[in-house]
Every structure is written in structure tokens, then in C-alpha cells.
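Q: Sequence in, structure out?
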Amino acid sequence: MTTSGHPLRILYRSHGGDNSKPRPEYYSKLLALAALLRAVADVEATVEVTFLTDGPMPAETLQVMERFGRVVALRRGGSAARSYREMLDFDQANPGPADELVWLAEDDYLYRPDALCHLLAGAAAQPGVDYFTLYGSRALDPERSRVRPAVRPDPAAQGSGVTFPVGDIHWYRAVSTTSTFGVRRRALTEDIRLLRHFPLTGGAWDSATFYGVQGYAPHSGRQLRRDLLPIGELPVARWPRSAVRGLVRIASMPLAWRRPDRRRLLMGSDPELITHMEGLGPFSHTPSRRTTAIDWAAVARETAEWGRDHGIPVVIPTPAARPSDS
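A: Exactly. Output:
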């Protein structure tokens, strides 16, 4: 695929440990790393990859990162919110050109090999858009959105009648996404205060972030009342922490009160070009027909084969090889 030739910077946050979330059989962080690198290899434009590591990393993973990019150890990580904020600080201390596209990535996603090519093509074709997501199907209904965003009943581009096709990808107005997304350098710099603040609000702070950048209230009045007056909701010992969270969330509201010319657009790809390798969670969604047509298990197998051909020791365990849950 021919891309626009625009530069792309990737900041890939990775934690050496793992968690107990349900995962697909093919999941591993080394597979996720190989998937990203396979997608990078498919891009004809300039790509700069920096791996931001949070805590000790497995030796084989670290060796792969050192071969394919720059490795920087985070100093104040320890949680997704802290490592995200430190990633933003690192980026601001190492600025690039205003028209640069920055891809902020977590370490548990599987990429189609053409994912980043489509990202660059979509960004080139939509110069008025600042934020891009390749994952998620919650679609914004601009006609019904007022103070808070409204979600269309159909996933992604289905049933909307308002899409922006670029090649065989249909871009649509997305409500929110995770903390894996693309952003133009200019918007990233202008929005840095908002982006650094929202991880402090707790809960689904990544959703709140994208409500805010689009000019919608990130928290409902009901949420704020429950935080400030958690009577009957939480044990008394947890009231002070809840109240502090409520105050931080109240402080986030003015950041989302944006003039019309400062409201950002978040465009999502249909089909999804990456998938989050975890089970049910706050971003569970009903994928579009285009997404369900993708055989992600086959993508995983092909990625593992690509990885082994490039000296990345990816092994996809069979169900029988997985540790017993008993």
C-alpha cells in the first residue's frame, strides 16, 4: 500500500509483568510486540519507534526492542495512569514537527499488518481531524449529542450514512477509545494539559479524555454527586478518597468547555485494524460486520510466523499447553 509519506512517531508503553484478565489463547506480549513491528515494516513512510518500559522487562523482549527502536526506562511508572502521564512528558521533552502523526500504544494489542498504513492514509485524507482510533465500535451521534455525547445504536459505520471512505476503510465519528490512539503533533501539544489531567480522574479515564477533547462533559452530574456524597454507595472508610476523586473530576470539567474551533474530531476505522487482546471489560463492544469478518486468530498465527522469520521468538501456546486453572 502506498502511504502519504507523512512522518510517524510511535511511543509504545510496555510493562514487564502481566495481569489476570481473560485473554485469547494466542495472547502474549511478545506477540503484541511482533504485531506492531510487522505493521511498522509495512509502512513506506518514516517511522520512529520508542519503547517506554515500565519496570524490569523479560530479556528476550528487551533484546527485540533494542533491535528495532530506542528503549527508554520510565522512572515514575507503576500504573497505567502514571506511565501514560510520563509518556506524555517524554514526548513533550522530545518534540517533533507540527504535522507529525504520533501513535500512542499499549502493549497488549494485535495489529493487522496494514493497520499503520491505513492510519497514515486516513490521516492524510482527513486534514481537519486530529485524533484517530483503530479499535472500538462505539459511534457518536452528533445530532443527539448535547452536553454529554450520545451513542448511535449501530456499531462503527453501520447504519450511519455518514462515513469517510479511504480505500476500503470507512472512517466514522467515534465516541471514545482506549489509551492506544493516534494524534497529530500540533493537537497533542495544544491539548497536553487536558491529556495529562484526565488520568488523575480515575475510573474509565480514557473515555473521559475523549469526551473532553471533543467538547463534551466528561462526567455526569450523577457521577459527581455519587463521588462527593457516597452515602450508601461506599463504606465510610472510603468516603474521603471518593470525595477527592469527585473534586478532581470537577476540576476536569472546565478543560472540556471548549470553543467550537477547539473541539477535536475523533475518527474510528471500520473495520477495526487492531484488537485489544483481553476479555470483557469497560470497552467491550459489539463489533461491526467488517470487523467480525476478520479472523484474528489467523492474524495471530501469521504474525507469529513473521516474528520467527525476523528473529522474534513468538510462540502461540495451544490450549493443552496452557497452565490449568485448577
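The chain has a mean pLDDT of 91.
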